[in-house]
Amino acid sequence: MAAAVAQAEDLNLTVYVRGAAQVEALTMMSAKATTTKIFAGIGVRIRWEQGGPRTTDGPAIVMQFDESAPARFQPEALGYAKPFDQFHAEIHIFYSRVLRSVPREVAPAVLGHVMAHEIAHVLERLDRHSATGIMKAAWVTSDYDAIGKRPLAFEPDNVEAIRAYWRK
Fold first, then answer.
1. What are phi and psi of 92, to 5 degrees?
2. DSSP 165
3. How far, rounded to the nearest angstrom, does the alpha carbon of residue 3 sit from its chain's CA centroid?
4. Interval 83-109: pLDDT, tens
5. Cβ(31)–Cβ(63) below 8 Å
6. Which tens digit of pLDDT belongs to each residue from 28-58?
7. Which of 12, 119, 123, 141 would be 162's cystine partner, CB 3.0–4.6 Å?
């Protein structure tokens, strides 16, 4: 079904990564693959780039990896999005917090889920969370266990809101 969805519409997104030198190369490659797989499942193709958006890119998001989190964030926050910025959407990821939150062997999968979660906030243009899946406000032990085995899913209303991004 996802393949039919992807062929029916041209839902392409470029994500520009900045400040990721602190992330080990294999961890970043695995996290990007997880994020890409999550979005491919709903018919969205992600292209990963370095640097900043060009005006010819079409939909683009800047994903910044920060050394530390601003004091205003709860200790369990792993990132945040600025989905309402009119000029360009930004995502901030707190990689050191991701590493502290889970065993090292599942850190790439968790990082990929954090990246997907924040991208979804930008695409949905909503500051809301779901009861289950990737868009939960806070994952619990059973979610982290599941993340280690397979990607969490979007709820149907998340999928609709994400796909609506291209119909603006």
1. -120, 130
2. G
3. 21
4. 776 556 899 999 999 999 898 899 999
5. no
6. 999 999 999 999 999 999 999 998 887 766 7
7. 123
